[in-house]
From TrEMBL:
UniProt-recorded name of the protein: Glyco_hydro_38N domain-containing protein
PANTHER family: ENOLASE (DUF1399), GLYCINE-RICH DOMAIN-CONTAINING PROTEIN 1
Any Pfam family hit: GRDP-like
Lineage of origin: Eukaryota, Metazoa, Ecdysozoa, Nematoda, Chromadorea
Organism: Nippostrongylus brasiliensis
Length: 217
């Protein structure tokens, strides 16, 4: 990825990739192939910044590369994607709040999360007809896997025979909901297969942030 997108565009792209089936369908419909992506370091992003701005300016004309909150509203645009990316962006704001804690930058914490993610994939492979839910520590690892679309497709095909769906629309936490039933089943299967707790300290749902709640009003 020699040309990097503006930060706001990159965030929307990131969110689109978190629905891998829709992302693949939309890419093939609009571009004829799945557009790959990889995470870059801050230094790599900085090195590509100037050339990316030039490429953007030559293609997008007066639309500025860097987002300006004071810019006039863009003309009404009708997306050609089959996925409601705008709604997905709102949902991911809450996910980011859940994982925006200091320990999510710990190498040891993330290393353990990767191990737990692999265990989760094994459960998904064994119980492919069941709705299983991740814990936040390895859900962020799952997200990271998905934002490398071609690698994710390759790995899922090897493990499951096809892309593994990721659905962030299941958020109802009322008694008897699909989400809570899935959590209970995952917790039970996890203890049976791995003989360790499914839940991990610092990885529990901590309600919706006030800012996210206000933005959804």
């Amino acid at each position: 990825m020699n040309v990097i997108p503006p930060l706001d565009v990159h965030w929307v792209w990131h969110t689109h990739m978190l629905s891998p089936l829709h992302y693949q369908e939309d890419c093939e419909k609009l571009c004829g192939k799945t557009i790959d992506h990889k995470l870059l370091s801050s230094d790599e992003i900085q090195k590509r910044y100037e050339s990316s701005v030039r490429a953007w300016d030559s293609f997008c004309g007066p639309e500025p590369y860097d987002f300006l909150a004071s810019s006039a509203p863009s003309p009404t645009y009708k997306s050609k994607c089959g996925y409601d990316i705008a709604a997905a962006v709102q949902r991911q704001r809450n996910f980011n709040y859940q994982v925006s804690l200091p320990h999510y930058t710990s190498t040891k914490f993330l290393s353990d999360a990767v191990k737990r993610y692999i265990q989760f994939l094994l459960l998904k492979q064994t119980y492919s007809d069941q709705f299983l839910t991740p814990c936040y520590d390895f859900d962020i690892v799952w997200h990271t896997h998905q934002v490398h679309p071609l690698n994710y497709l390759r790995d899922c095909t090897a493990i499951f025979g096809s892309l593994l769906k990721h659905d962030d629309t299941v958020n109802d936490r009322t008694k008897g909901s699909k989400l809570l039933k899935g959590e209970a089943l995952t917790k039970k299967l996890w203890a049976t297969h791995f003989e360790e707790p499914f839940w991990r300290r610092g990885c529990m749902f901590r309600q919706v942030s006030a800012l996210v709640s206000l933005s959804l009003c």
